Amino acid sequence: MMNDTRNDTLVNRITMNNESKPIVRRHRRRSIIHEFCLNTSTYALPGIARSETLRNRLFWSISFLLFTGIRIYFVIQSIIRYFDYPTTIDVSYDNDSQQYFPAFTFCNIAIFRFDRFIEPFLNYTNFLNLTDTNDTTTISPYQANLVESFMLHKINKDVSLEDYFFSIIINASFMLTQF
Q1: Lowest CB count within 10 Å: 56, 64, 156, 168, which one?
Q2: What SS3 class is residue 46?
Q3: By C-alpha distance, which of 110, 138, 113, 133 is closest to 123?
């Protein structure tokens, strides 16, 4: 300290040197940590940051360490139980030596047999005056739209549709294959 004689007041002169920089950095770090502790949702850290007495700070620190230890204990117990859970895998192989495969398959994507369907269908459409044709080889696009109403008519009259649908498979032969 030096006396300034011009104003008759005591003036403190502070010299700037490298010793003051670590104090500022440490203060900044403490300020950041203090701000984090005040705003975190972690249990007890805001209590530690807000406490003004040593007794309160000690209480919140012990609470934090105690409950952190309890939390770690339960997490470890859960992980241990997960890995100790018994796992059972049953794998069995059953070798059937005989398997039946069809010798020949043919699919023409027909919903029903045309040879058994066309005559009753034409009788239905001609009776209702929807069409006037006797062509039993093809169906026009207009007639194709009437197939659904024909089938509903047959169902409502309680007529079996088995002749149209279930007689598609004429003959099936199987071959025996051994592996």
Answers
A1: 156
A2: helix
A3: 133
CA end-to-end span of the chain: 107
Tokens in use for 158? 């309680």
Contact 102, 177 (CB under 8 A): no
Domain ranges of the chain: 2-84, 98-178
One-letter amino acid for residue 173 of the chain: S
Return the structure tokens found at 151.
């089938």
- How far is residue 61 from each of residues 25, 51, 68, 83, 168, measured CA to CA in Å? 25, 10, 10, 33, 84
Per-residue pLDDT reduced to its tens digit, 109-166: 666 778 888 888 888 888 888 888 888 888 888 888 888 889 889 889 888 887 777 6
Residue whose structure tokens are 């309160």: 56
Nearest to 170 by CA among 99, 100, 101, 115: 115
The Cα 16–Cα 146 span in angstroms is 103
pLDDT tens by residue, 38-49: 888 887 888 888
State both tokens at 28: 């900044």
* pLDDT value of position 79: 95
